[in-house]
Amino acid sequence: MSRAQTVLRRVVSDVEELGFRAHAVHVQVDDEQVVHRWSEDLARDVHSVAKGVCVLATGAACDAGLFDVDAPVARYLPDLATGGGASAVTTRHLLGMTSGIEMPWSPTWTTDVPDVAAAFLSRPALDRAFSYSSASTYTAMRALAAAVGDVHAWVGRRLFEPLGIDVPDWDRCPLGHVKAAEGLHLRSGELALLGQLLRDRGAWEGRPLVSPHWVDAMHSGWTVREAGPGYTHYALGGWGGPGPAWRLHGAHGQMLIFTGDAVVTVTADDHLGADRMAQRIVEAVGT
């Protein structure tokens, strides 16, 4: 039995032992890929995994010379008023959740105010403090759109089409912009392709879709905070942990978990069980 098969077999056993409500688990080790499904492979919202896609979209634009991640967001959104300190906030701050701007999430966050980016930037920026916010990623993609046009179309051309993924649905706000931080609908197999791209530091079939340093930035230069296990370290879209791993982690158990030469893709409907499942996955890969 190959290593990928061994890991999958243990993860499937753990899923069933824990009663974790998984849709699919996809394991890739080196070039071998194996998958186990509990339900039909439908396109589902990957939730905050989309934040990682936004980092890649930004990186591709910077690689092309179209965008500056370290320029003030106000350069790209000059018509939006900025609160105290917010005029110096950059897209890198927004993607890393270090703008210091607080804007709590709600189930209706894209319709609670007429313009989320305007509302977000009108708030004070508190000393680049960590503040995890969907509005932060959304505002970053509003800035990117000012440089590249529609972000959905940009990501389709630069990432999804080269990966062989039919351009997926991405929910939009009432103003017509992608929600960015959520609402991206992918099948588990498509999510696994994204995982392979990240594991291989932005390269696909021998050519870079994004420069390696953008992927590296998703799991280095951590912002460290006091929080529960798996939530103390955050970079550009990526969480540190469990253990030596790092991951993209969306609500209800949508995860890409990277450790060594392995990437494990999980789609699920089990928000509360996801952290424990991630720990089991890292243990399975490490044995």
UniProtKB/TrEMBL annotation:
It holds the Pfam family Beta-lactamase. SUPFAM superfamilies: beta-lactamase/transpeptidase-like. InterPro entries: Beta-lactam-related, Beta-lactam/transpept-like, Diverse_Enzym_Activities. It comes from the Bacteria. Transmembrane segments: none annotated. Residues 15-261 form the Beta-lactamase-related domain. Gene3D superfamilies: DD-peptidase/beta-lactamase superfamily. Signal peptide: none annotated. This is Beta-lactamase family protein. It comes from Quadrisphaera setariae.
